[in-house]
Design goal:
The complex is a heterodimer of chains A (284) and B (171).
Chain A: H1 2-6, H2 8-31, H3 36-67, H4 69-84, H5 87-112, E1 117-126, E2 135-137, E3 150-152, E4 157-164, E5 169-173, E6 181-185, E7 191-195, E8 206-211, E9 222-225, E10 237-246, E11 253-259, E12 268-274
Chain B: H1 11-29, H2 45-57, H3 59-75, H4 83-101, H5 107-132, H6 138-170
Classes of the chains: A alpha+beta (284), B mainly alpha (171).
């Protein structure tokens, strides 16, 4: 063992690791940026990741199909001949349709919020070790994205940009236990703080804390961003209240909020790179 | 280098195969669809893969592949502080050394080691990202996601080990 630790190979490996870690810490903790080596790898591997994703999606679909084998076999026999000639065209058509729908929604949002500047992006990867559904997108500083920019879909809020690279960025979602953002109940205008909770992560929900004990909030109420702190624009829909519970202290209440966006199943998002009132941040 | 470290196929071709396996595992584990996600728990395939590479190919190859895997994983980790570079390089080197000096290199011993390595990895991840760097989650996150994630990841070691053993012996 001593021989290995004294070897030239180990010394080179140890020095490489130390240099890379020092660079990563420097860039990430002090600059909130991806380290150059990760940035470069992200740029190089992004196209491969996209190809890999289509392959895994096909495999996923194939596995799902196995569960419905009887119906599919019957249907397949009936349609096989008919479909063969059109298969490739259909795949292309589906892709264009999805893209069209996405850009149509994107345009509608642009019309509704003239002060927003959007950057569309595709979800490229997830951190497997992180259960709070944080993910990476294929857009970065070269597309005008900056740290803490809000990330949305046409349905509502997804999260915010937590780290920026040249062509890759990472997004922290609304169900992340580390997120704390000012929010309002749309009907009653009661304010609270929205954020994730580890005990709620598996259900894909978050909680609106610090509601008063005589709160008028009821199940089904919409929760929206308050705009306080300038991190998110006001009025973005976060989710709907599904339950109201007492805080451990018994002094206040909290509402369980189901996000309108299923953050586990996202494929495309929009980043708001500029909006009226953009300014400070609430938490970092 | 002893015989254990010498593959039968031309080394560059053999290690290219390992690199392809590494990239495939990375691509599958970070796919946005979460193809392997069960009840919100995803496996980190690269931890068990690097542990297997370290055990079968020795500490040096394990360390080098661990470094490569760490670089890949850090691209999608936030904040990117080089955690995976350190941990996966240590896993590759550590598993190689443990198998050489302490354990027998068989399926049971290797699975025990992979499970231990996965537990250490997930606990360190939780400690750094959820406790020290303020990601939130507390103890609930540890037992609900980290420990089950470690066991789920270790299961894949049972697939990687025989595959790499076969690759190492016959290729």
């Amino acid at each position: 063992m001593r021989k290995f630790f004294a070897s030239r190979g180990f010394k080179i490996l140890a020095i490489t690791v130390c240099v890379l870690v020092a660079v990563s810490i420097g860039f990430s903790l002090f600059g909130h940026m991806l380290a150059p080596q990760s940035d470069l790898l992200g740029m190089v591997l992004s196209p491969f990741q996209t190809i890999g994703n289509s392959v895994t999606r096909s495999i996923d679909r194939a596995f799902t199909a196995v569960g419905r084998l009887d119906t599919i076999e019957e249907e397949n026999n009936r349609l096989r001949e008919e479909i063969r000639g059109y298969r490739e065209q259909l795949v292309e058509y589906d892709r264009y349709k999805r893209e069209n729908e996405f850009y149509k929604q994107f345009l509608e949002m642009k019309e509704q919020h003239s002060d927003y500047t959007f950057q569309p992006a595709t979800v490229t990867a997830r951190d497997a070790a992180d259960a709070s559904a944080s993910f990476s997108i294929d857009a970065g500083s070269r597309d005008g994205i900056a740290l803490h920019d809000p990330v949305i879909t046409k349905d509502g809020l997804v999260g915010y940009i937590s780290q920026v690279g040249t062509s890759v960025s990472t997004v922290v979602t609304v169900i992340d236990p580390g997120l704390r953002v000012g929010a309002l109940v749309s009907r009653t205008r009661e304010s609270g703080v929205i954020g994730g909770d580890a005990s709620l992560l598996s259900q894909g929900v978050c909680q609106l804390s610090y509601l008063t004990s005589n709160s008028a909030v009821t199940v089904g109420d919409y929760v929206i961003t308050s705009g306080d702190g300038g991190m998110f624009p006001s009025g973005l829909i976060i989710g709907t209240v599904t339950d109201i519970k007492k805080e451990q202290s018994n002094v206040s209440l909290y509402a369980v909020v189901k996000p309108v966006v299923d953050v586990q199943q996202l494929t495309q998002v929009m980043v708001i790179t500029d909006f009226e009132g953009q300014g400070g941040i609430v938490n970092e | 280098m002893n015989n254990r470290d010498l593959p039968k196929l031309k080394p560059w071709l053999h290690y290219s195969l390992l690199a392809v396996l590494l990239l495939t595992a990375w691509s599958v584990q970070s796919a946005p669809d979460g193809i392997l996600t069960v009840w919100g728990i995803s496996p980190v395939l690269l931890v068990s893969l690097i542990a297997c590479i370290g055990m079968i190919y020795g500490e040096m190859i394990g360390g080098v592949f661990g470094l490569a895997a760490g670089l890949l994983m850090d691209v999608y980790t936030t904040p990117c502080v080089g955690f995976h570079i350190v941990v996966l390089t240590a896993v590759g080197i550590g598993c190689g050394l443990i198998i050489r000096h302490l354990f027998m290199n068989n399926l049971l011993a290797s699975f025990t080691l992979i499970l231990g390595v996965c537990l250490v990895y997930f606990v360190l991840y939780w400690l750094l990202f959820k406790v020290i760097l303020g990601g939130g989650g507390g103890w609930v996150y540890l037992y609900r996601f980290s420990l089950s994630g470690a066991v789920y990841s270790a299961v894949f070691g049972g697939l990687f080990y025989p595959l790499l053993k076969w690759l190492h012996r016959y290729w």
